[in-house]
Amino acid sequence: MGNDDDTELMDSGSFMRPYLLTGGRTRSDAGELAVEAMVAVSAGAPMPSQKELAQIYDLCQTPNSIAEISAKCSMPLGVARVLVADLWGDGTLEVLETTRSDDIAIVRRLLDGIRNR
Q: N or C: which terminus of the chain carries fewer CB neighbours within 10 A?
């Protein structure tokens, strides 16, 4: 695709370079979140006006990991991490507690499930 094609697609609103979504940032000022971090909309948080942020907001009415958000929103993982961290930083999303790997009961159930397949 040539440069003229990129400009035409960007002007039509059907295409946007990933770095434009994050303002060229590869990290959020709010901090780093793991790709497996589960996030959900904070109670009473208003919907953002930016299309991509609103899409994440809608998706996070139920908990999702950053990796799931990336896949479901068809955006690069790095972009999803920055945007989710931004929403977390402004209080729109909350990071849910994840299971600790030292919880032996969960590990045993996981192993039992694998053995029974």
A: C
Only one residue has tokens 């045993």, namely 108
DSSP string, 43-56: TTPPPPSSHHHHHH
Q: How many domains does the chain have?
A: 1
Q: How confident is the model at residue 2 (pLDDT cuts 50, 70, 90)?
A: very low
Give the domain extent around 87: 28-115
0.85 surpassed by pTM: no
Cβ-Cβ contacts under 8 Å for 28 (sequence gap 6 or more)? 81, 82, 83, 85, 86, 88, 89
Distance CA 41, CA 19 (A): 24
Laid out side by side, the sheet with 93-95 consists of 64-65, 38-41, 93-95
Domain assignment present for residue 88? The answer is yes
Question: Are the beta carbons of 70 and 80 closer than 8 angstroms?
Answer: yes
Task: Report DSSP state, residue 40.
Answer: E
Could you tell me if residue 4 is inside a domain?
A: no
